[in-house]
Every structure is written in C-alpha cells, then in structure tokens.
C-alpha cells in the first residue's frame, strides 16, 4: 500500500483505489506536461526498501526521511519542484506517472542514479 494513510476496510479501500487509479489514468490520458515531485535517492535497493518500511510504518514523514537518507542534497526535503518530461530521467518520469498525487511509489524506482522513492505532489 502507498502513503501513510491507515488501510481502509473493504469497500472504502476499493473505492479509494479506484478513484486513485482513475485520476492517474485521466492524467496520462490528457498528457501530463509537468509534475511536482519529491524523491529520496539511495545507492542500494535494500536501503530503499528499508526507507519504504519506515515511511509505511508512519515512523517518519517523507520530507524528514528525504533529509535524513537521500544522497541527493540539492532539493530541500527531497523537493525537485515542477519538472517537465525532458528534465527528468525517463524511468523516473514513467514511474511518477503511475503514482497518485500526494502518494509515493510502493517500490523503489531504479534509474541511472540509483534507487528512488518518488512522491508526486501535483500534475499539470
């Protein structure tokens, strides 16, 4: 499960998942020009999984985890800001398209730079 929301039971969870999926599909359909993204970048897959566990447990917020663990210190709290497709690694962009706004990737995303946990803040 993505995000640090408490799991919803049965129908509510299914409805929320469907809503997230519909939003992602709509965004892809109309062609996303820009996405506001944050990320946590690490060198090792195991480290990325460890951080995902911390995020999923709610022990640490995304921004805090980014400050503490990300090897990319350029963005404060992992913020990359609004980016166009050509400004991001293509694997990163493709993965970010699948993530509902306000959520982060359920799995680490591998690029030439290492392993990312990507959070999508917005699309336009």
What gap, in angstroms, lies between the N and C termini?
A: 25 Å
Structural class: alpha+beta
Low-confidence parts lasting 5 or more residues at pLDDT below 50?
A: 1-5
- Per DSSP, the total helix count is 4
Written as H for each helix and E for each strand, in order along the chain, the element string is HEHHEHEE
Q: Percentage of helical residues?
A: 40-55%
- Taken as a percent bin, the fraction of beta residues is 15-25%
| Radius of gyration over C-alpha positions, nearest whole angstrom | 14 Å
Main pleated sheet? 4 strands, antiparallel
Shape, please?
Answer: globular
Give the strand tally. Answer: 4
Mean pLDDT: 89
- Order of strands, widest sheet: 2-1-4-3
Structure overview:
The protein is α+β, with helices and mostly antiparallel strands. 40% of the residues lie in helices and 23% in strands. It is built from four helices and four strands, in the order αβααβαββ. It has a four-stranded antiparallel sheet, with helices on both faces. The protein is globular. The two termini are 25 Å apart.
Features:
4 strands; 4 helices; alpha+beta; 23% strand; 124 residues; 4-stranded antiparallel beta sheet; 40% helix
Topology (SSEs and partners):
Blueprint: H1 10-30, E1 34-42, H2 45-57, H3 62-69, E2 79-84, H4 90-97, E3 109-111, E4 114-123
Antiparallel strand pairs: 1-2, 1-4, 3-4
